[in-house]
Recover the amino acids of this structure.
């Protein structure tokens, strides 16, 4: 007898539940912003990636409403009839902002990360990735056909040892801002190693763009580094841009190769041209948004100062991602539940997503001082009650 789907999965579902690892989708009844309706209840939201508060910005919605050059649907893939002027202009504007030769749009960051690794690397090549890279980078490496090795988090000595071990063409892959810890890769060191060993360097700046650097240009600018010829940058629009989708930035030959050969680019419908227009508007606001970045960084500092005063276990992060380490999954869930009872939405992130269970607090420019103070005082109560 072959198993039914229930035979195979019911025990796995039961096991997840028993381990406090069961995942659920909170239902939002309001736009993305600090004050939300989630599962029918009013909540202060401290776990979105909407770092600059652009996700519900009325100027973006207005730009879409005022446009009469596009409908909602793109109708086809980019290589068929789906490549609208708004996509084209968005690519040019991103290239101009970042100072790269060209940019190519993708429907999601997940797909961009698959595309880069599948297209650039082949059997016999090597991909060397940081152990804490985003899941989409790991999946892209696994799907590429190249030999995939991981080095311990930020251990560039281990990375160099790997680079010295073989002459195979190599791609170094790293998040710039690590999505669960909020700490930064040392891009200068990565670039130096890449140059020394003629490796290509692929950086996912999902959490750096809009937040770090001049005009929000991200992690390369934060470290005052150029984007070199054999560097590849991925950015996503689902974080600070407040829209959705992603892009790859780099040399003309890189972008032309992706257009010709990247299956996750070729065989999929182009993102909505309205989303491209929304993202063009977001880029304009984000480039001009030093006041938003100043507010975000003030909010991060306020949270860190308050949380340290409470004796909470923070990580070394200058980014909007500020995890509170709690150690075990049940405790992380209990704290997250207690915060929900008090009207704060903060997700518990547990193994297998991360090695150490934590609350993943994220800050936004849209949070007020009073909202951050309210979160800190709720955390003080929960800590005192020793849940
Ligand atoms: C969110 C994220 C992605 C995935 O981007 P999507 O557009 O949401 O698919 C990739 N990499 C990192 C580091 C991310 O945080």
């Amino acid at each position: 007898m072959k198993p039914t789907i229930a035979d195979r999965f019911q025990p796995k579902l039961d096991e997840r539940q028993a381990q406090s690892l069961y995942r659920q989708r909170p239902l939002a009844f309001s736009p993305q912003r600090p004050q939300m309706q989630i599962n029918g209840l009013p909540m202060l939201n401290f776990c979105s990636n909407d770092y600059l508060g652009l996700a519900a910005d009325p100027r973006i919605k207005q730009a879409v409403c005022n446009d009469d050059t596009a409908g909602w649907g793109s109708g086809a893939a980019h290589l068929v009839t789906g490549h609208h002027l708004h996509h084209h202009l968005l690519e040019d504007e991103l290239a101009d902002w970042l100072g790269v030769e060209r940019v190519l749009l993708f429907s999601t960051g997940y797909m961009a990360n698959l595309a880069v690794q599948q297209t650039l690397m082949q059997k016999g090549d090597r991909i060397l990735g940081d152990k804490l890279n985003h899941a989409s980078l790991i999946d892209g490496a696994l799907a590429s056909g190249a030999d995939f090795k991981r080095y311990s988090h930020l251990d560039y000595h281990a990375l160099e040892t790997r680079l010295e071990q073989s002459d195979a063409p190599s791609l170094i892959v790293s998040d710039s801002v690590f999505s669960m810890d909020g700490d930064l890769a040392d891009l200068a060191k990565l670039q130096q190693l890449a140059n020394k060993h003629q490796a290509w360097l692929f950086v996912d700046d999902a959490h750096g763009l809009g937040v770090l650097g001049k005009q929000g240009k991200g992690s390369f600018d934060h470290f005052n580094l150029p984007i070199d010829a054999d560097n590849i940058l991925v950015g996503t629009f689902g974080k600070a841009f407040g829209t959705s989708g992603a892009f790859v930035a780099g040399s003309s030959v890189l972008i032309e190769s992706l257009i010709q050969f990247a299956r996750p680019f070729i065989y999929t419908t182009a993102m909505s041209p309205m989303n491209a227009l929304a993202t063009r508007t977001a880029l304009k606001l984000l480039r001009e948004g030093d006041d938003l970045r100043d507010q975000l960084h003030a909010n991060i500092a306020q949270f860190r100062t308050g949380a340290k005063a409470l004796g909470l276990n923070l990580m070394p992060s200058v980014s909007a991602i500020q995890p509170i380490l709690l150690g075990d999954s049940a405790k992380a869930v209990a704290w997250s539940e207690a915060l929900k009872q008090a009207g704060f939405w903060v997700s518990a992130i547990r193994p297998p997503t991360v090695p150490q269970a934590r609350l993943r607090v994220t800050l936004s420019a849209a949070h007020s001082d009073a909202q951050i103070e309210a979160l800190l005082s709720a955390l003080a109560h929960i800590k005192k009650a020793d849940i």
User: Anything to note?
Assistant: Residues 20-52+290-385 form a domain with the Aspartate Aminotransferase, domain 1 fold (CATH 3.90.1150.10). The CA atoms of residues 125 and 169 lie 5 Å apart. The chain has a mean pLDDT of 96.
